[in-house]
Amino acid sequence: MDRVVIVGAGPVGVASAILLAQRGIRCLVLDRYEEPYPLPRAVHVDDEVLRILQEIGVADEFLRVSRPGLGLRLLDGRHRVMAEFRRDTATGPHGYPQANMFDQPDLERLLRTRLAELDNVELIGGAEVTGVTWDGAPPGARAQGGEGGSGIEGWGGGAARVRYTVIRSGDVRSVGADVVLGCDGANSTVRGIIGARLEDLRFEERWLVVDGVCDRDLGAWGGVHQVCDPRRAATFMQLGALRYRWEFRLRPGESTVDVDTLLTPWLGTIGVRVVRRAEYTFRARIADRWRAGPVFLLGDAAHQTPPFIGQGLGAGLRDAYNLAWKLADGDPRLLATYEAERKPHARAQIRLAIVAGWAMTGGQDRAAAVRRVVLGAIWRVPGLKGLALRSTSPPLRLARRRGLGRRTRPARRGGLAGQAGLADSGVAGGGRRAGRLAPQPLVVWEGRTVRLDEALGDRWATLFCGRPAVAPVGRAIEVTPELDPSGRLRRWLRGRTVVLRPDRVVHRG
């Protein structure tokens, strides 16, 4: 894999470029806008996704511009607390707070800065992609008309060609690529080019989103507030020192609302400068295909989710991480596992978001009264309360036989994508941990205390205590008391040998 063209320079597109460039793959990023979108959109990532930002090289900087979330409060229409689910803001099993609130322009600035540090990436803004061609592509996907030169040294051939228009001049150019990544959002041009259609998962609501900077701190509880009022469901959260977000569900047919009236219960006499006021339609949709030939869909181009569990951006970054190491590996069989692993995972998170949204905002008056009783009961049951706070990320599952790309009926365990020749070496995937993300405690590596992923590197790794049960794959690390002074990693291993993929997912163990 030598050259990748990425369509879209939002967080998913830029993250994909960084992950690939760090693995030695040249990337060209094309975006129709000349500057990053300046207004906030995504506001939350969990500790699993923060590990991806760590791999990208911006995690520590991100921690300085974000704030740990305390959890979730469910409020009734009078803003009385019905239930509270607290998260520990200290370091969790993945090395970071479990919930992290932020302002998206801050994250985009960090990603663009990191991108500029890499020599094998070029970003062209003001470039609108109009066509992609490849051998075997449907006729509708083939770019028509004259194509000028790319102006980019060494971007002549490849399995695909991408045609784009320079918006300022009107010049039409084309570039060759081994792979094309469609990271161009919910209204994806690339999705249309490959003929993918969106499956409607039956959720659609109109919401008003208001971002503002207050004159002084509101003194609010430091988690997400969800107003479970069928008359006006709402969400409130603090993003920065004086930055806040409000989201209000709009009623059917409602065209105008008085923002000042909506904000008054939260603000009192405190002033606010509205940074953004935008109406959004929250939808649940997933593309029926995520690939055609050398063209792949990632992020909102492949899936769209309601925001109720805060996994929209995280899902796209998981796509990028899953695909980047497989592209770098060079085995074409691995590329067949991208959609097979990521699509069920994304669908599961979307369905969870739908259920959470209905539970927190749906129903009429009688249902709302029942919900208050049920939520109050959950609040008092430690086991159920713990379940509500558990990570929303399900394990990856990919059933296969006789080859990495052949799918069979879903398996309960194992069957994850493996390295070329890995099964032949006697290290087949499987085990009760297969498909789950390994934890990331602090370890002592080469005389320094570091997070585990820094010791693992961007490769396969085998963790074991004493003697490995199988021939080690990739970097072999014996987990000793000296390496693992806290004992967290040894307690997780429980004497087993665990083989980890480059994305820290357990292949065997």
TrEMBL record:
UniProt-recorded Gene Ontology molecular function terms: 3-(3-hydroxyphenyl)propionate hydroxylase activity; FAD binding
Keyword Oxidoreductase: yes
Keywords, comma-separated and alphabetical: Oxidoreductase
Basic residues biased stretches: 402-412
Annotated spans, Disordered: 402-422
GO biological process: 3-(3-hydroxy)phenylpropionate catabolic process
Residue intervals of the FAD-binding domain: 3-351
Signal sequence, renumbered to the chain: none
Stored InterPro entries: FAD-bd (IPR002938), FAD/NAD-bd_sf (IPR036188), PheA/TfdB_FAD_monoxygenase (IPR050631)
Keyword Oxidoreductase: yes
PANTHER family: 3-(3-HYDROXY-PHENYL)PROPIONATE/3-HYDROXYCINNAMIC ACID HYDROXYLASE, FAD-BINDING MONOOXYGENASE
Protein name: 3-(3-hydroxyphenyl)propionate hydroxylase
Organism: Dactylosporangium sucinum
Gene name as annotated: mhpA
